[in-house]
Design goal:
The complex is a heterodimer of chains A (about 230) and B (about 350). Chain A has one domain: Orthogonal Bundle (MetI-like fold). Chain A is built from ten helices and no strands. Chain A is globular and about 65 Å long. Chain A starts with a helix and ends with a helix. In chain A, about 40% of the residues are buried. Chain B contains ten helices and 21 strands. Chain B starts with a strand and ends with a strand. In chain B, a hairpin with a 4-residue loop joins strand 12 and strand 13. Chain B folds into two domains: about 230 residues, P-loop containing nucleotide triphosphate hydrolases (Rossmann fold); about 120 residues, no CATH class. A six-stranded mixed sheet of chain B has the order 7-8-9-3-10-11, with helices on both faces. A five-stranded antiparallel sheet of chain B has the order 2-1-4-5-6, with helices on one face. Chain B is about 25% helix and about 30% strand. Classes of the chains: A mainly alpha (about 230), B alpha+beta (about 350). Chains A and B meet through helix 6, helix 7 and helix 10 of A and strand 7 and helix 4 of B.
């Protein structure tokens, strides 16, 4: 049996999760200090990948990263083609995982008592230090939960990945895609094996997440209490 | 050393419009909840931006709307003590205090932290998390943390209101020591009259965003400039008044004519006397009874407090129980023991020097 879909899936999800973590946190922190009707539109755009059909996300990504798309042309200048390459799987997974990260990170940052941030400012801390040393550590439990959810979502990505990255065994064939094409080819045994592996990984992640929030929960409350 | 404040800021139901100058030493800012006290401190600390005006500390301009200057909080070096302490829950006491010292060398940081732990009597808890401390200890950590940056001004937002009574007096003496050593502008915001009086040298009374009184605390309490200030500083007896000569007034709500100590300059609208300054004659001597500003009085009802008794009195003629009273007086328990058995009417004296007049 060819195990490459497993490694591709894990590498893709891990990379996408790291990118999502950085982008999601940055977006949440940036959004945190702004308000107004324009920001509602921004929120909408950030959350769109959560509700759009994966085919729509995939199609839009094709338009962006295709040979004639604005980003595609940019990458072409450096001699790189995105479509049907491994980075395309990362891009598709990142885009669909981003809303989950953004939502949980914002909720977690909003929970941080504003007086703590203000106290840090009066003590001479720069905005970066306020974020890194006060906001982020206190929001960390929520952010970590968002990271696990993002990883699980990235692992389950199928539609947009297929459209942007195609199905190239050993290169862009992730577990969900391997399952689809196994069923297409009537290789039920192979499809079932991958299904079990996928269910196993996802269940372990979600159970781990629940265990973690359940056991960290009281600790967080102890922190928050003054 | 001086902090000069002249700001305007529109709030939900009134406009904050405040100007004053604070020199070295503690200045109490007394006002009811929602008078804009906290917002004033937040503007000085740089956590909120006034709409208009100017804010300077020594020779540094913090805010000037005409030049569009707004220095961020982190550059102001103003120590702020938050009402809920705002200690960083994920850091130890030591790390909390050292938070503002990051730019100093490690040895210097350590030296300052040790000195502050000593000054605020926090030895022994420096490695605990704030959640494991008592309210009083948390308060002292917050104070030490604010003092660590050697701020050029200190702002304290209701520093004692969350503490229970015995901790409150401990913290009060801690603050008195701090003020004595600190000698820079310190603003202490409170709604508690006693706290404001005990801790501040100067006092500002704030009402709905405006400065209603500003000056030496003794003077504000002795001669409140307005009915509003009299009420906010705890005066229980206020009557409408009109002048009858240059030394006498008629107190319309008390139904009596009073001699006053100072010449009646502008036509007064109100007269007031503090409850504890009303004197009782224990034995009705004829001389006392005939004395100026002395009236017969009947007890309407009394309320016993832990250390004193509040008596609600009707002047000149008896009134039915539960009827409205003219004045309320406050006397010690010993005095009450002696007074209670004497037959009514008793006699009270509203001493001319205790009566003050107000225009509005």
């Amino acid at each position: 049996m060819d195990w490459s879909p497993l490694w591709i899936s894990i590498a893709t999800s891990a990379t996408a999760t790291i990118v999502t973590l950085v982008l999601g946190l940055a977006a949440a922190a940036w959004r945190e200090c702004r308000s107004g009707p324009v920001m509602a539109l921004v929120d909408g755009i950030f959350l769109l990948p959560l509700v759009l059909p994966p085919t729509v996300v995939g199609f839009l990504l094709l338009l962006l990263f295709g040979r004639n798309g604005p980003l595609g042309k940019l990458f072409l200048k450096f001699g790189a083609t995105i479509v049907f390459s491994w980075p395309a799987t990362v891009i598709a997974a990142t885009v669909v995982a981003f809303p989950l990260m953004y939502l949980t990170a914002r909720a977690a940052l909003e929970q941080v008592e504003p007086h703590l941030l203000q106290a840090a400012r009066t003590l001479g801390a720069s905005e970066w230090r306020v974020f890194r040393e006060i906001a982020l550590p206190l929001a960390w439990p929520g952010v970590l939960a968002g990271t696990i959810l993002s990883f699980a979502r990235a692992l389950g990505e199928f539609g947009a990945t297929l459209m942007l990255a195609g199905n190239i065994p050993g290169k862009t064939e992730t577990i969900p895609i391997a399952i689809y094409f196994a069923v297409e080819a009537n290789e039920m045994q192979r499809a079932a094996t991958w299904c079990f592996i996928d269910v196993g990984i996802s269940l372990a992640l979600l159970a781990g997440l629940y265990y973690w929030t359940h056991w960290q929960g009281p600790g967080r409350l102890r922190w928050a209490r003054r | 050393m001086s902090l000069e404040v002249q700001i305007e800021k529109k709030l939900a139901d009134f406009t904050l419009d405040i100007s004053f100058r604070a020199g070295s030493g503690p200045l109490s800012i007394l006002g009811p909840s929602g008078a804009g006290k906290t917002m004033l401190l937040r503007c000085i600390a740089g956590l909120d931006r006034p709409d208009r005006g100017r804010l300077t500390l020594n020779d540094r301009v913090f805010f000037d709307s005409s030049q569009d200057i707004q220095i961020p909080a982190r550059q102001r070096r103003v120590g702020m003590l938050f009402q809920n302490y705002a200690l960083f829950p994920h850091r130890t006491v030591r790390q909390n205090i050292a938070f503002g010292l990051k730019k100093l060398p490690r040895v210097e940081q350590e030296k300052r932290v040790v000195a502050l732990l000593e000054r605020t009597h926090l030895g022994g808890v420096e490695n605990r998390a704030p959640g494991e401390l008592s309210g009083g200890e948390q308060q002292r950590v917050a104070l030490a943390r604010a003092l660590a940056i050697e701020p050029e001004a200190l702002l304290l937002d209701e520093p004692l209101s969350a503490l229970d009574t015995h901790l409150r007096s401990q913290m009060e003496s801690q603050l008195q020591q701090t003020f004595a050593a600190y000698r820079r502008p310190s603003l202490l915001v409170t709604h508690n009259i006693e706290e404001a009086y005990r801790l501040g040298a100067q006092m500002i009374v704030l009402s709905r965003g405006r400065v209603a009184a500003n000056g030496a605390k003794e003077e504000i309490f002795r001669r409140p400039p307005s009915v509003e200030v009299a009420r906010l500083t705890g005066c229980k007896n206020i009557s409408r008044a009109r002048a009858t000569s240059d030394r006498t007034i008629e107190a319309l709500d008390w139904g009596c004519t009073l001699r006053v100590a100072a010449e009646v300059a502008a036509p007064p609208a109100f007269a007031g006397i503090r409850a504890h300054l009303i004197e009782f004659s224990e034995v009705v001597e004829s001389s006392f009874a005939r004395d100026e500003n002395t009236f017969s009085c009947w007890l309407v009802r009394s309320v016993e407090g832990p250390f004193s008794i509040t008596l609600y009195l009707a002047l000149q003629e008896p009134r039915a129980e539960s009827a409205s009273h003219h004045v309320q007086a406050e006397i010690s328990k010993e005095k009450w023991q002696r007074l209670r058995d004497q037959p009514l009417p008793w006699h009270v004296r509203l001493a001319p020097e205790a009566v003050f007049l107000m225009k509005d």
